[in-house]
Amino acid sequence: MAKTLHLDIVTPEKPTASLDVEEVSLPAAEGEMGVLPGHMPYVTALRAGELRYHKDGKVELLAISGGFAEVRGDSVLVLAETAEMAAEIDVKRAEAKVTEKSQAIKAQSMAPVDVDKMRAELMMEIVRLRVGNKAGKR
Predict the structure, then answer these.
(1) Which of 22, 111, 113, 114 has its CA 20 to 30 A from that of 137?
(2) Which tens digit of pLDDT belongs to each residue from 91-128?
(3) pLDDT tens digits, 43-90
(4) Taking the domains of the chain in order of start, what are their residue ranges?
């Protein structure tokens, strides 16, 4: 059995990552999902959350806003709406966006469909903030 698996992360704008890793943790719709080499084939929806992979003894983090993942034995393909490496996240900007979106929701001055959209955007900013803060602590 192989000791690594190939991870591809693709967004509508660009491929974000293509590398061999030892392990991947995905924010699956049903909960966090770990993938090791030789994993059974699987397709799952992804929610906004933290994607982690282990490479050469280091853990790398990404904030993703949802999408799908396909696992095929020794490869994982992630099709994400957005994917941002932890080191690229501007924590101060994410904090400001969390405050801005929270206040907009509390104001209750928009249609219910807009509130739902704003809540999804708030959740993504919270994920970005969490991932960005973790990156700063390593």
Answers:
(1) 22
(2) 999 999 888 888 887 887 777 777 788 888 888 889 98
(3) 999 999 999 999 999 999 999 999 999 999 899 999 999 999 998 988
(4) 5-86, 90-137
Using alpha carbons, select from 57, 68, 71 the residue that is nearest to residue 27: 68
Token readout for 63 is 């904030």
In a 3-state reduction of DSSP, which class is residue 25? strand
Q: Superfamily assignment of 5-86 in CATH?
A: F0F1 ATP synthase delta/epsilon subunit, N-terminal (2.60.15.10)
Q: Which helix (H) or strand (E) holds 52?
A: strand 39-55
Nearest one of 20, 9, 2 to 56, comparing CA atoms: 20
- Per-residue pLDDT band for 138 (boundaries 50, 70, 90) equals very low
What torsion do the CA atoms of 122, 137, 37, 19 make, to the nearest 10 degrees?
Answer: 80
- By the 10 Å C-beta count (0-12 exposed, 13-18 middle, 19+ buried), 138 is classed as exposed
Is the separation of the CB atoms in 67 and 76 below 8 Å? no
- pTM attached to this predicted model: 0.84
Q: In this structure, what token pair is assigned to residue 84?
A: 């941002």
Torsion angles phi and psi, residue 69, rounded to 5: -135, 140
